[in-house]
Amino acid sequence: MANRPALHAEIVGWGKYVPSKVLTNEDLAKSVDTSDEWIKSRTGIAERHIADPKEASSHLATKAARAAIAVADINPRQIDLVIVATVTPDYLFPSVACQVQDALGIPNAAAFDLNAGCTGFIYALSVASRLIAAGAHKLALVIGAETLSRVLDWQDRTTCVLFGDGAGAVLLQASEAPAGLLGCTLGADGSGADLLQLPAGGSRRPACEDTVKNRQHYLKMNGPEVYRFAVDAMVRASRAVIEQTGVLMDDVELVIPHQANVRIIQSAVKALKLPPEKVFTNLARYGNTSAASVPIALCEAVEQGLVKQGDHVVLVGFGAGLTWGAALVQWGAPLPVKLPFWKLALYHAVRPLALARSTSHRAALRARTIISRVDLNGHKP
Ligand code: UT7
């Protein structure tokens, strides 16, 4: 077999979407025993975005993906892999990724969801990058999308003030240029499963009257225990990825941590001896959006001009599982030129086209089912 050049997964597109409804700390203080002062001083969060009742994770994911496709300025039909990291899928099955694939009108792409809690996006980035490096795929859409507002107990002040809804996406393209994921470290410790979980609705405790009565369809968390684990996990994962790649911490231009609590970030930054200006935070406006937090933050950092071609960026996170992970990315793409009006219009036109395609596929599937039923009946003994 002829030697093929080493392939890298370069980030060529990025996008985010957050629902328009904003819920402030003051709003929350009207319904639970909390205060703006407590939430800000203990977490750094001022407000979060909440999905409209008609919006599910797939809608948020699709909108973030469309933004990433527009930045990359590519034909979405070329995408051959879609991975969505989420803990709040629309359904247990089918996957959010399949719904995104359908909504975007991408034929024949492999599509699956990945659940690694808030570390999900870093896991998905690693999987997609390695599939590209192996030559299995050429253009991958990697999304983190959550509607955590649907699984929060709005009577539990210890959790409902922390989370928000949103989605972030990147497009990875096979490239011979040495850019993209330079290294990645992933880990898990399932013995911490009960520290952060959604107890019911799965195969262990299916939905029943008792699970509803006992409020087991809501997220439960042991905050202080997760906090202790989080600082240690972020520090260890960041150090491990730096060691793995041989890049010096001083040569890292930006660190983008999972946005859960500003105190967790500050403690990790202190332990890593990082100058605070090298660390990106935006959780004041979004709260903890779980698997969406890192891609939303990455997208905002790029939009704010904080990431330039050639820069080394560390993405680091932790979450339910327990899981943790860090990725070192070398930024390859220049900031995109503003798309001309006609091209933006074209990307908007793709939406009705994808819808028409999906509707005709569904109609064809239904027609086939009816025909096969008639056929079966006709052959009945
Ligand atoms: O993405 C991964 C998911 N989760 C996380 O990363 C969260 C990690 N943990 C944390 O961020 C923090 O542990 C919390 C923000 C959840 C809590 O902060 P804390 O400083 O660890 O507070 P605590 O749980 O020790 O509670 C301190 C006090 C308690 O009152 P008492 O027992 O001292 O009287 C709580 O009942 O604060 C009380 N409290 C509140 N008070 C007002 C807890 N939540 C609230 C609230 N408003 N929303």
Question: Describe it for me?
Answer:
There is one protein chain. The chain has helices at residues 25-29, 36-43, 57-72, 96-104, 120-133, 157-160, 209-213, 223-245, 262-271, 283-286, 293-303, 341-378, and strands at 8-17, 21-24, 47-50, 81-85, 110-114, 139-147, 165-175, 180-188, 196-197, 220-221, 254-257, 312-319, 323-330. 39% of the residues lie in helices and 21% in strands. It has twelve helices and 13 strands. With 381 residues, the protein is α/β, with parallel strands linked by helices. It has a single domain (8-330), classed as Peroxisomal Thiolase, Chain A, domain 1, CATH 3.40.47. The structure holds oxa(dethia)-CoA.
Short description:
The chain has 381 residues and is of the alpha/beta class. 39% of the residues lie in helices and 21% in strands. The protein has twelve helices and 13 strands.
Provide key terms for this protein:
381 residues; Peroxisomal Thiolase, Chain A, domain 1; 5-stranded mixed β-sheet; 4-stranded mixed β-sheet; 13 strands; binds oxa(dethia)-CoA
Radius of gyration using CA atoms only: 22 Å
Low-confidence stretches: none
The helix-and-strand class reads alpha/beta
Percent in strands: 15-25%
Q: For the largest beta sheet, what order do the strands appear in spatially?
A: 1-7-6-4-5
CATH architecture: 3-Layer(aba) Sandwich
CATH superfamily: Thiolase/Chalcone synthase
Record field, number of beta strands:
13
Overall geometry comes to: globular
Task: Compute the number of helices.
Answer: 12
- Ligands in the structure? oxa(dethia)-CoA
Order of helices and strands: EEHHEHEHEHEHEEEHEHEHHHEEH
Euclidean distance between termini CA atoms? 56 Å
* CATH fold-type name: Peroxisomal Thiolase, Chain A, domain 1
CATH uppermost class = Alpha Beta
In total, the number of domains comes to 1
Mean pLDDT: 92
Please give the share of residues in helix. 25-40%
Biggest β-sheet strands, sense, barrel: 5 strands, mixed
